Amino acid sequence: MSGSKCTRLAGPLVKQLLESVDTVLFDCDGVIWRGDQAIPGASQVINLLKERGKKVFFVTNNSTKTRKMYAEKMSAMGFNVTENEVFGTAYCCAAYLKTICKLEGKVYLVGSPAMRHELEAVGIQQTGVGPDHVSGKPIDWANVPLDPDVKAVVVGFDEHFSYTKLNRALQYLLQKDCLFVGTNRDTRLPLEGGKAVPGTGCLLQAVETAAQRQAQTVGKPNHFMFDCLAAQFGVERERCLMVGDRLDTDIMLGSNCGLKTLLTLTGVSTVAEAQKHQESGCAERQGMVPDYYVESIADLLPALQG
Ligand SMILES: [Mg+2]
């Protein structure tokens, strides 16, 4: 196999790479679909990989869907997938609090109904989702009522994020031993036609700035997401491939965990960006250089069909 990085994956190299792995991790948006549109050929690739005996998992930083919601979306698009193959940050956050932190107490949740659902599924109570209101005139911000059972502040994507929530998160984090966990640090969610919306990273940074504390994040590029699935399914990292469209999250996760990495060009990042990281000579940026790249994951099809 080629020793140089950022190699175009084509010809006999495809089969060679696939033979060298037992497990393949896929990011979702920009890799197997774009929004609600499946990438042409993606479902065949996933289904054939599984037919060839590969373990396939989906790792996504999106915290607005439960595992079940993902599995349903994928099934509707023709992917052969079960919910225990999906590792989203809503689920991983709950798993982290349960298995690593061994949290005893409630969560003050800045997040979505999906996060509430995944927390409840592992038996963790939370303060609820939706707009947070305080009453009183003038409002005594430093003395808003707090729930004495809250032992953790968790931040994910929340379209009801507000000063009230920011302040309440701060008041909890000022308390001794309050845990602070975030789903992910993606600052911007790119959309079609050059459009974009603010990502969870913006909300998390606001809370971190107020609290003067760093949150522990569970999403890519943090290794927890991989640890979580490796522990459940006995994955051997040397024989595992991470496929993604973002250098700073997907490819970085693969590098952080010692996996082989494949960049697909149907999403956010470009080969030119990867080459810039490679040529920078900066050690930290080498983690954002993939081993291989393809135009689309459909480029894997011929090797799987043959
Ligand atoms: Mg993506």
UniProtKB/TrEMBL annotation:
One of its GO terms (cellular component) is cytoplasm. Mg(2+) binds at D27, D29, D245. Substrate binds at K220. The active site is at D27, D29. Its cofactor is Mg(2+). GO terms for biological process: glycerol biosynthetic process; glycerophospholipid metabolic process. NCBIfam families: HAD-SF-IIA (TIGR01460), PGP_euk (TIGR01452). Glycerol-3-phosphate phosphatase hydrolyzing glycerol-3-phosphate into glycerol. Thereby, regulates the cellular levels of glycerol-3-phosphate a metabolic intermediate of glucose, lipid and energy metabolism. Was also shown to have a 2-phosphoglycolate phosphatase activity and a tyrosine-protein phosphatase activity. However, their physiological relevance is unclear. In vitro, also has a phosphatase activity toward ADP, ATP, GDP and GTP. This is Glycerol-3-phosphate phosphatase. It comes from Cyprinodon variegatus.
